Amino acid sequence: MAVYTDVSENEVTAFLADYGLGKLLSYKGIAEGVENSNFLLRAEGGTYILTLYEKRVDRNDLPFFIGLMEHLAAEGLSCPLPVKNSHGLALGELAGRPAALFTFLEGMWTRRPTAGQAWQVGEALAGMHLKGQDFALQRPNALSVAAWRPLYEGCGPRTAEVEAGLSAEIESELAFLEANWPSNLPTGVIHADLFNDNVFFLQGELSGLIDFYFACNDILVYDLAICLGAWCFEQDGAFNITKGRAMLEGYNSVRSLSVEELEALPILCRGASMRFMLTRLYDWIHIPDTSFVTKKDPKEYLQKSRFHRQVRSVADYGFTSQLLNQ
Ligand SMILES: Nc1ncnc2c1ncn2[C@@H]1O[C@H](COP(=O)(O)OP(=O)(O)O)[C@@H](O)[C@H]1O
Ligand SMILES: N[C@@H](CCOP(=O)(O)O)C(=O)O
Per its UniProt record, what NCBIfam families does this chain match (predicted)? Predict the structure, then answer.
């Protein structure tokens, strides 16, 4: 669950007084999410999400995240809009934490997406990339290739507890990724964590994107690689080529993929697998079992990494050459 900080009714009432949204009617902790404390807040003026930023989010990054959501919403992307208080500020303080109020997004996330939903995710991701083009602030990706080795070293000898031989496998893959990571592909603002729990659907139609707290500037198709990993594998670990094709087509329908971007997809997918395997491995080792945070399985991304390592071309992701002629 993700309510790390308890807040009292008095504290929330005092915070809300600055917003001109009338009286507080109710507030309730939201169990989902892992990074921050989130509350569903009802006031006379409407229903909102109250977020308290916890220690894993760097305060210096908050203007980027909040500014990005304001920018994307103004460009027409369906995402939470930060609400400004009577001083014109979206960021305040509550219970000693930076805190902000966001518009409530209708919809639900799906555990078992269809190919049609994978298409919509590709389409929405490309839309976000185009809408992010004019965003003025910059935030380098703190979890890109240069960060992986230190993260791995921080896991230490307990890595072997996850699987025998895992350290050698990671070291060999890291060496490959560090030596071959592309440096000439188009960059821009990426979401960097567009997993199933961060995309809402209403009656099968994508209704919005949430959780921009890993957003940063990086290779645009790296974001697509993250989504192929998060959306196109089945529960048994098999890659679903129909969903892969749908996602690539959905993306390409909004932002045309170049030959260079398509050719780079296999290594970008390997990199995305390494990134999520390592952050999960780090948490697996460092977060105590007694903690109420649900730890995610690093092995899921080890299996995905192994799949991507035997991919020979983008055809294995469902790519067809017609994509280039659209
Ligand atoms: N604007 C929003 N509208 C509706 N629900 C939201 C909104 N923002 C967050 N939530 C709910 O809160 C949960 C956790 O939010 P998320 O941003 O993913 O947290 P974290 O950053 O801690 O992972 C989401 O799964 C969703 O249920
Ligand atoms: N998507 C990451 C973990 C981050 O979780 P979120 O709740 O902030 O989306 C993973 O699956 O490892």
Answer: PRK05231.1, thrB_alt
Q: What is the pLDDT of residue 5?
A: 83
Indicate the helix (H) or strand (E) that contains 188: strand 187-190
What is the distance between the alpha carbons of residues 292 and 55, in angstroms, rounded to a whole number?
16
Domains of the chain: residue spans and CATH = 9-103 (3.30.200.20), 115-325 (3.90.1200.10)
Residue 197 CA, ligand 2 centroid: distance in Å: 8
| CA dist., res. 228 & res. 18, Å (int) | 42
* Distance from C-alpha of 38 to C-alpha of 100, rounded to nearest angstrom: 10
236-277 pLDDT per residue, tens: 999 999 999 999 999 999 999 999 999 999 999 999 999 999
ipTM: 0.95
**What is the pTM for the complete model shown?**
0.96
What average pLDDT score do residues 64-93 get? 97
Which among 111, 295, 296 is the best mutation to test ligand 2's pocket, defined by most ligand atoms within 8 Å of the CB? 296
Distance from C-alpha of 66 to C-alpha of 83, rounded to nearest angstrom: 10
Does the C-beta of 33 come closer than 6 Å to ligand 2? Answer: yes
State residue 116's pLDDT score.
98
Element (H, E) at 150: helix 145-153
Establish whether residue 38 lines the binding site of ligand 1, counting it when its CB lies within 6 angstroms of any ligand atom.
yes
